[in-house]
Amino acid sequence: FFVFFATTRSFSETPSVKVKGEDDLFSMIPTTLIKSFQPALNAYNKGDVDRAIVEAKKLLKKKELTETATALLGDFYLRRWEGAGSGEGPELIAALNALEDVTRQYGGTENADLALLKRGNLYLSKQQYGEAGGSFTRVVLRHPQTPYAATAQVGLLEATRGLRRWDQIVRWYPRLSTFNPSLYNQQRGAFVYANTLFELGRFSESY
Questions:
Q1: Poorest-pLDDT segment among 51-60, 100-109, 159-168
Q2: Secondary structure (3-state) at 9
Q3: Most CB atoms closer than 10 Å: which of 10, 129, 148, 158?
Q4: Closest CA to 151 of 132, 170, 127
Q5: Is the dihedral of CA 106, 110, 115, 117 positive or negative?
Q6: What gap in Å lies between CA 33 and CA 62, rounded to an integer?
């Protein structure tokens, strides 16, 4: 998982961003704060996500640690939901609420953008395409200057494909290039576009 501190940097390119499955949390936390987060990280790396959540919650009352702790909790609850089988139980509600906490409290930060991407992908996995599209749209419209806009635009195309709104994809696909997408995102977008052309019966253009 990725965890960032708030930043005012500007970005010149859009990297390929994984939104789950990244376990190197140590490298994403400022070195001056690593000691404070060590108990939570140690528990997480041992596979004890429940203990990691308990330890991260202890840090919410410390102002200098609150944002990173909130972002970590979003990641931890998401991992707990995945570990529980990605079902419809209380783990799903907890994961969505934790990600919403990040976007509500730290809107405009990299942490918020990443939380929106994670939530969008969660909804995609549940085939809840309208909700997924809403999360991705917030990144594209509100934070187009961040390195996550291209990833969100591709997610929006994928959600729109799930809704079988082929004409919208044809209109929206050219916008992807304006976000300076990585090769990975170019390939994802091109796949959705080719599939759309096929569904529209434009077979010669889809190859």
A1: 100-109
A2: coil
A3: 148
A4: 132
A5: positive
A6: 12
